[in-house]
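Suppose you are handed a protein chain with no further information: no name, no annotation, nothing but its sequence. What can you learn? This example shows the usual starting point.
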Amino acid sequence: MSNLENVTMQGDLGVFRQLPKAYRWQSAAELQTERCQDSPTSPTNLPWKDYPDVNFPWHISERSHQQLSRASLQDNPFWLPHGNVYYPREDGKLGWSFTDQAHNLILKYINDALHDMYESESQSRGLFRPDAKESWEAINHNTSQGFVLDDLELKAGTEKSSYFEVTPDGSPAQRQVAQAVGFTPQNLTYLRQRRNLHPRIYVPNPEYLAKILSGTKDPIWFASLLGGFNRSFKNDCRFYALISSVNDWHNVRGVFQK
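A reasonable first move is to predict its three-dimensional structure. Written in structure tokens, the prediction is:
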């Protein structure tokens, strides 16, 4: 994967629509594997203004210019094409379905999502609930991976978030989730031993979810974001399966399909 030409866009989640047709959006597993390795030829990480081909909307062509440095790939946060659908199960527990790009309704209805999934210091428009029938079809599709939040031994983060630390000796349910989002045993060894990082996976706080799902069986959707390694941003290599604001500016990385 690291030898494929690629293109990086920067913007809100809707920027994925500007990926050239010859490129496909990198999955979580692909991106994690590409950046969990050292590069002996990594150039200095340049600020955006120093790239010669940066224009609005931010577009960095790596087919005609030197590839972004490994440091930039590792330190920056990236939007991912996966959807996260949360719903009440028949047994009373909370379910989580991790979808691929084709079944991510946030992307299918991106204009609605950009309106509904908006937060600022002064305004929050609420949550994203597309058509319930379509949501259940995505949840039950054979490409979607299903998890049970109650099985993940979560720790409280904030009122709206919870997490678990990804470790080699995590529970079977934790390891299953970690594998799905790209924290493979090999990548985890690199992150923890070579980089001294402590990856976490963040999901909505179950108590918060139970509150907003109370009285309805309609699933609720959140976007996916992979945090950078850069400790100054306090990301510390975290996977976020709870992004409710898709108007923030991050990166989308596409790979050239030869």
